[in-house]
Amino acid sequence: MISSWTSWLSLIQWEQPVASEWTLRECRVFFWNRLYREAPAALDELDRELLGSTRDSSDDDRLQFVLLRAFTAIFEEGSSSTRRTLKAVLLHGFASGGAASGEDAGLDASGAGSGIYEVVDRHLTWQEAYSLVGGNPADYSARSRLCIALRAECQRQWEAVFGSAAPRVLSEEKAHV
Amino acid sequence: MSEHGTPFQDFIEQSLRSEVAPSTFASHPELEDFMRLISGDASPDAREEVAAHMALCVPCRKRWLKLAEAVKRQEQALLSSARYPTLSALAKENSQRPWFSQVGDYIAQRMRSFVPAWSLAGALGTAVVAAVVCLCVLLPPAAREWGRQARYTDLNGETVTKDIPVPDIVLPPASWDTPEALLKGVNAMAQYPLSRAIAEAIGQLRAAGVPLGLEVVAFTHDQVRLQTVHEGDSWESIAGMALGSEALWPLIVLLNAAQYPDGQLPPAGASIRVPAR
After folding, report:
1. Which helix (H) or strand (E) holds B152?
2. Which of A25, A63, A174 lies nearest to residue B7, judging by beta carbons?
3. Chain A touched by B66 (CB under 8 Å)
4. Hey, which of A7, A127, B219, B236 would disulfide with A137, CB 3.0 to 4.6 Å?
């Protein structure tokens, strides 16, 4: 199926310069799921599958693509504790997604070897998420250090991929509106 | 803003949350895709595709939940030996069922299938007629000495001559003085459990070379006596004492088929019929 996505994306480049937001998000979730299961794709594979359509898409898609790329780069280069914290961030973020009612929660929130679908709509706190990956829930410094590294990586990725200055959300300590 | 979070942390959380916002899909994974995911047979790419779809599709997540719970319940039920017997216990139980019961089940199963009952009955009837015809054709000449004297060679190589009066086996047939009547009577008894013992005994004796007609009608109530079963006795040991050859034990079984149709030697102290020398 991913090969069909590849051919479809290449087709989009020729016939439809603006890619569908739905298709890009599905494809990104495919790679988010691999990253979550600690089997990330290589950066060149991300570029091959997503970059072409992302260039012609919205700013949100470009931000999401850069965020995915930054997470992947840090996971590949980081230590085991960095990976653990990164997985906790993913777990915490995806668990807050879903229908927001808690009714559509997945099987369990063990996180080990499972997919995003098992944690969506679980609404975990940061302490719960960090505990599930084996971290000390009272340690907030790991998350802060990771976010600092992520922000820097996002800026670097944006400038490298798109050749322009990073958006404000990536360069300033202000919430994106 | 999340708990204890900086603006960038909030941005990350919001981004990840929006990535898995529910979506509506025109097509969904098939049941086989879910089952392969459960069984672990899915390829890595297929697994990731289904997982990514379920992250975005609420109905498929619910389907997955129900399916996984059903599989888990079945696994727990299979592990509960108190409720469900093991395959070896079922096989043992099935092997202990009478052969006619198994045949009946097979026939019923075939009749429930696409094979019409009349065609199955016709096939069975044809097979029975063919068996009777074959047996009649293959009867050795000695068997035609019915009603008079029969002479045959037992397993010890000795020539035995026996008078063959009206037989007295199981049911009182009007006349079993011809091989055809004998076979007809045996086949008629197929509905009774004792016919299994008779069928096995006939097979054993035929393999030993004893003429077909004699193994059933060789003995009458005038030529039998009662013998008490002792501890350690067996059909073979009793046949050895009564007939001089343990290989003729099926004759003893046949002689007692009316009282012990299952072919099992009764416990010590019971009386059985043995040929009178």
Report:
1. strand B149-153
2. A174
3. no
4. A127
pLDDT tens column, B170-211 = 333 334 444 445 445 544 443 333 444 455 555 555 555 555
Tell me whether 0.85 is exceeded by the ipTM. no
pLDDT at residue B184, as a whole number: 52
Summarised one tens digit per residue, pLDDT across range B46-85 is 888 888 888 888 888 888 777 777 777 766 665 554 444 4
Nearest to A93 among B1, B17, B48 (CB): B17
SS3 A167: coil
Residue to mutate among B3, B4, B9, with most A CBs inside 10 A, is B9
Q: Are A107 and B30 in contact (CB under 8 A)?
A: no
**DSSP class per residue in B71-135:** HHHHHHHHH-TTTS--HHHHHHHHHTS-HHHHHHHHHHHHHHTTS-HHHHHHHHHHHHHHHHHHH
Distance CA(A77)–CA(A70), nearest Å, equals 11
CA-CA-CA-CA torsion for B4, B8, B10, B12, nearest 10 degrees? Answer: -130
3-class secondary structure, B271: strand
Number of cross-chain residue pairs from A and B with Cβ atoms under 8 Å apart: 123
CA dihedral B78, B82, B86, B91 (to 10 degrees): -140
Task: State mean pLDDT over B224-253.
Answer: 80
DSSP B200-239: HHHHHHHHTT--TTHHHHS--GGGEEEEE--TT--HHHHH
Position of tokens 């009547």?
B181
pTM score, whole prediction: 0.50
Rg (CA), chain A: 16
Q: Could you tell me which chain B residue has the CA closest to the CA of A40?
A: B48
Q: Tell if the CB–CB gap between A147 and B22 is shorter than 8 Å.
A: no
Confidence band (pLDDT; 50, 70, 90) for A1?
Answer: very low
What is d(CA B218, CA B24) in angstroms, rounded to the nearest whole number?
Answer: 85
pLDDT in tens, B101-148: 666 666 666 666 555 666 767 778 888 887 777 666 655 544 444 344
d(CA B257, CA A158): 95
Q: What is the CA radius of gyration of chain B?
A: 35
Q: How far apart are CA B86 and CA A50, in angstroms?
A: 53
Q: Which residues of B touch A104 (CB under 8 A)?
A: 22, 58, 61-62
Contact assignment for B56 to A26 by CB distance below 8 Å: yes
- Report CB contact under 8 Å: B51, A116: yes
